[in-house]
Design brief:
Elements lengths: L8 H8 L3 H8 L7 H14 L5 H8 L4 E6 L3 H4 L3 H16 L3 E6 L3 H12 L5 E5 L7 H7 L4 E4 L14 E5 L1 H14 L5 E5 L5 H13 L8 E3 L4 H14 L5 E4 L2 H13 L9 E6 L2 H4 L7 E4 L2 H16 L14 E3 L2 E3 L5
Parallel strand pairs: 1-2, 1-3, 3-4, 4-5, 5-11, 6-7, 6-8, 8-9, 9-10
Antiparallel strand pairs: 10-12
Helix pairs in contact: 1-2, 1-3, 2-3, 6-14, 7-8, 9-10, 11-12
Length: about 350
């Protein structure tokens, strides 16, 4: 088998009639090369089908063109919950637009945090996107210790030590969306409304519970049950609520996935939806909400767009505009939600 000889940077320079240093500056995005010379180098690259050596390019640009995406969830949940697929798709599309690679890191156990910390400190990536964080997560500290910028998916629960270096994040209006869900149930004539909350060590769950309580502040503790953003967790919480309050007539679940488990329990116990019990979810994941029986009324957050915005914020932090005058300062983003009415409520 004859080995394939790849074109070298020296070959590009010779074809363009320039020095190797000039060819290197053009190929690696450097400045200081006049337009006609730069165009000759780019033409030579195209003619020779030259692919830059990433290691050499990193030495010149100080950029890896790689972003870590760190999910604080075990593999079993990451690969079964469609929420993560949609967020990763948004991130991936934005990064690929700017020729950046996505490096996915998952955390199953404490040992994984050590591995992630070593990887980030090794200079392999330019920054990190973190989401599905829990109250006691040390991932943000690991990223900061590695000296790389971060953007967080979801409202941070910690206080920034330096007001000049606030944590950038992207979230949706969890609390407002929850209020809309409960008001919708009240508008349908429901008066015994229960809530299936997500894990209360995550800010999205807390915000949705607080939105529920904004509208129904006097709700008895027996009408609130904790789930875990899985169908099984939603089913367990629904069974618990029915045992405590068999006369409930409305349910707001903090995710579509949990609502799907709740619907199964309601059907198995002979409750008709929405005749006997109306159900509203949160997320509007079409792969779940439109395929439940009946189709799920839910609060829509644009999960893919939120992933895209996370990537965009991080890329701007890494490469701020050359002329910042007139360019808004980097700030966190809270996206709106809206109610999508289907047959379940």
């Amino acid at each position: 088998m004859i080995p394939v000889t790849r074109p070298t940077l020296e070959a590009v320079a010779a074809r363009a009639g320039v020095s190797r240093a000039t060819a290197s500056r053009v190929v690696n995005g450097g400045a200081g090369v006049r337009g006609p010379l730069a165009e000759r180098v780019r033409q030579a690259v195209a003619e020779l089908d030259y692919v830059p050596n990433q290691a050499a390019r990193t030495l010149v640009t100080r950029h890896n063109d790689a972003i870590a995406v760190i999910v604080a969830e075990p593999e079993a949940r990451f690969f079964t919950d469609p929420f993560f697929a949609r967020q990763i798709r948004g991130i991936s599309r934005e990064l690929s637009t700017y020729d950046n690679q996505l490096v996915l890191l998952l955390t199953n156990a404490a040992s994984d945090y050590e591995r992630v910390g070593r990887y980030l400190s090794g200079g392999h990536v330019d920054g990190a996107l973190l989401f599905s964080l829990h109250t006691d997560d040390s991932l943000t500290a690991l990223a900061r210790d590695a000296g790389i910028p971060i953007v967080v998916g979801g409202r941070p629960t910690w206080r920034d030590q330096d007001a000049g270096h606030r944590t950038l994040y992207v979230d949706c209006d969890n609390r407002g969306g929850a209020r809309d869900a409960v008001r919708h149930l009240l508008g349908r004539g429901r008066r015994r409304i229960a809530h299936i909350a997500g894990p209360l060590d995550q800010p999205a769950s807390v915000d949705r519970l607080n939105g529920f309580r904004d509208v129904l502040p006097d709700t008895a503790a027996g009408l609130i049950a904790a789930g875990d953003f899985t169908p099984e967790g939603g089913a367990r919480a629904m069974a618990e609520l029915l045992e405590r309050s068999p006369d409930l007539d409305g349910v707001f679940a903090a995710s579509d996935v949990m609502a799907s488990g709740a619907l199964r329990v309601l059907r198995d116990t002979g409750r008709r939806v929405p005749d006997d019990v109306a159900v509203v979810g949160f997320d509007d994941m079409v792969s779940v909400a439109e395929w439940t029986d009946p189709p799920l009324t839910t609060v829509r957050q644009d999960i893919e767009e939120m992933g895209r915005l996370m990537a965009r914020l991080l890329l701007r932090a890494l490469r701020p505009p050359a002329d910042p005058l007139g360019v808004p300062a980097l700030s966190s983003i809270v996206t709106p939600t809206r109610l999508v009415v289907r047959a379940s409520a």
